[in-house]
Amino acid sequence: MPSDSKNKTIIDIAGHKLKIGNLDKVFYPATGFTKGQMLDYYIRIAPFLLPHLINRPLTMKRYPNGANGKFFYQKECPAHRPDWVRTIPVWSGGNHRNINFCNAADLPTLVWAANLAALELHTSLSQAPKINQPTQLVFDLDPGSPATIVNCAQVSLLLKSFFDKHKLQSFPKTSGSKGLQVYVPLNTPVNYDATKNFARILASQFQEKYPELITANMKKALRPGKVFIDWSQNDEHKTTVCVYSLRAKEQPTVSTPVTWQEVIRAVDQNDPKLLTFEATQVLERTAQAGDLFSPLLSLMQRLPALS
User: Fold this and answer.
1) I need a labelling partner for 253 at 20 to 30 A (CA). Which of 19, 37, 94, 304 fits?
2) Contact between 138 and 183 (Cβ < 8 Å)
3) Judging by DSSP bridges, how do beta strands 58-62 and 118-123 pair with one another?
4) Per-residue pLDDT tens digits for 88-121
5) For residue 130, is it left (φ>0), alpha (ψ between -120 and 50) or beta?
6) What is the DSSP code string of 66-80?
């Protein structure tokens, strides 16, 4: 890897030359995890991550000074992007124009984005060209202190039971932060009005059935000690942290697919650490088990009717 006079390293990724800078810059002060290690993680996880990024409008959450520094969300793909970076136009009613999101469709684009300090990758629930058709349903489970991810795990098992009853497969992943998420692959024609309404009604039913454990209300004053089922993520204008994305926390944690057996074990042992994974662990997990989220890419299911 040759370096130029401005302390930038030139690397060749699939025939594209990229100038990569500040590789020694510490992005996670508590652990000494550097930008170079962040780039290395994204390069190594790419075979598992890219299928979940391709053709999905990407919102980059950029941390120029590392996980503890100020950040900003970038929806419009930077104008200074290389000419080989593809974009996805999405109409914005508020802006009265298309927003051209980056399409992280390949390894060079992923590395280019990571070099921009896009520590976190947030994606749409739909894929181009069918931007108005979500391919999946998501329940974002957020614990209100003193509740923890273990309480989220309890709620996720209740959701699993519901979907099992309706013969639908569901898949859990950690948010990489405090919470847990449950995804239901659809990959069949449906619109956001239908998925959002379904998620809202089901979350409200769960709140009525388990009022001491669950809230479906967005008011933060109602969340302490409960798990908020955020049904509102099922929206064409919102994004959710992508599977295998790093998170800007004290440690380099990752939004990680987990098995239902792991969720049950965390509940049985009441141990939040059993659902916390850092970059190195995630690379080891994928090497051993592959992509636990691969069914999200192709499994075809339809939403059941709610009584």
Assistant:
1) 19
2) yes
3) antiparallel
4) 999 988 889 999 999 999 999 999 999 999 999 9
5) beta
6) -TTS--EEE-SPPTT
